[in-house]
UniProtKB/TrEMBL annotation:
<dbReference type="Pfam" id="PF21948">
    <property type="entry name" value="LplA-B_cat"/>
</dbReference>
<feature type="active site" description="Acyl-thioester intermediate">
    <location>
        <position position="138"/>
    </location>
</feature>
<comment type="similarity">
    <text>Belongs to the LipB family.</text>
</comment>
<protein>
    <recommendedName>
        <fullName>Octanoyl-[acyl-carrier-protein]:protein N-octanoyltransferase LIPT2, mitochondrial</fullName>
        <ecNumber>2.3.1.181</ecNumber>
    </recommendedName>
</protein>
<dbReference type="GO" id="GO:0033819">
    <property type="term" value="F:lipoyl(octanoyl) transferase activity"/>
</dbReference>
<keyword id="KW-0808">Transferase</keyword>
<dbReference type="GO" id="GO:0009249">
    <property type="term" value="P:protein lipoylation"/>
</dbReference>
<keyword id="KW-0496">Mitochondrion</keyword>
<feature type="binding site">
    <location>
        <begin position="38"/>
        <end position="45"/>
    </location>
    <ligand>
        <name>substrate</name>
    </ligand>
</feature>
<dbReference type="InterPro" id="IPR020605">
    <property type="entry name" value="Octanoyltransferase_CS"/>
</dbReference>
<keyword id="KW-0012">Acyltransferase</keyword>
<comment type="pathway">
    <text>Protein modification; protein lipoylation via endogenous pathway; protein N(6)-(lipoyl)lysine from octanoyl-[acyl-carrier-protein]: step 1/2.</text>
</comment>
<feature type="binding site">
    <location>
        <begin position="120"/>
        <end position="122"/>
    </location>
    <ligand>
        <name>substrate</name>
    </ligand>
</feature>
<feature type="binding site">
    <location>
        <begin position="107"/>
        <end position="109"/>
    </location>
    <ligand>
        <name>substrate</name>
    </ligand>
</feature>
<dbReference type="InterPro" id="IPR004143">
    <property type="entry name" value="BPL_LPL_catalytic"/>
</dbReference>
<dbReference type="InterPro" id="IPR000544">
    <property type="entry name" value="Octanoyltransferase"/>
</dbReference>
<comment type="function">
    <text>Catalyzes the transfer of endogenously produced octanoic acid from octanoyl-acyl-carrier-protein onto the lipoyl domains of lipoate-dependent enzymes. Lipoyl-ACP can also act as a substrate although octanoyl-ACP is likely to be the physiological substrate.</text>
</comment>
């Protein structure tokens, strides 16, 4: 898990609609641009955003088949509702985690090959949301983005979210996760 620095835009497997002009535009803003093998369209990763790459063997998890599909999404939803007391958090027909079905707070782009996951999630903690203004995040024109800090009207740092995220991964996936709370949080970023 870490916080992205410098800012970067990534495009998933449906990359065809993004031209070199788009790439040059965001690079001029001071961001990196990467084409990756994950689900989804273009999104932003940058400072103030917790990015996690959980690697699971889905064949070995003690969960019903449908729970495996939505497990990562459920981790974020439960954590945001229970630990951060956000309301109206849930899923929609679009990938990710949403507030009031209109504001995306968490992106999920996971690849599964032979039952093993790669890539992961990005959760906006105290992200500068202006970076999303330069793209159509995940190809959704009529939606916006938000962050935990924005929703709570107080600063929530990435380091404030690492422990709860690990806790909820353990709960949802029935795993024991050891997090050394005495470790320097900068080691996670």
């Amino acid at each position: 898990m870490f916080e992205h620095s410098p800012p970067a835009y990534t495009v998933g497997i449906r990359e065809g609609i993004y031209t070199e002009e788009t790439e040059q535009k965001v690079v001029k803003l001071g961001a990196e641009f990467h084409r990756v093998k994950r689900g989804g369209l273009i999104t932003f990763h940058g400072p103030g955003q917790l990015v996690a790459y959980p690697i699971f063997n889905l064949n070995n998890l003690p969960l019903p088949k449908n729970q495996k599909t939505f497990g990562v999404q459920q981790v974020l939803i439960q954590m945001l509702k229970e630990k951060f007391k956000l309301e109206n958090v849930g899923r929609t027909e679009n990938a990710g985690v949403w507030i009031n079905e209109q504001k995306k707070i968490g992106a999920i782009g996971i690849q599964v090959r032979n039952g093993i996951t790669s890539h992961g999630l990005a959760l906006n903690c105290e992200t500068d949301l202006k970076w999303f203004d330069y793209i159509i995040p995940c190809g959704l024109k009529d939606k916006s983005t938000t962050s935990i800090s924005n929703e709570l009207n107080k600063q929530i740092k990435v380091t404030d979210v690492i422990g709860p995220l690990c806790e909820y991964f353990g709960t949802v996936f029935e795993l024991k996760i050891n997090l050394n709370i005495n470790a320097n949080p900068q080691n996670f970023i």
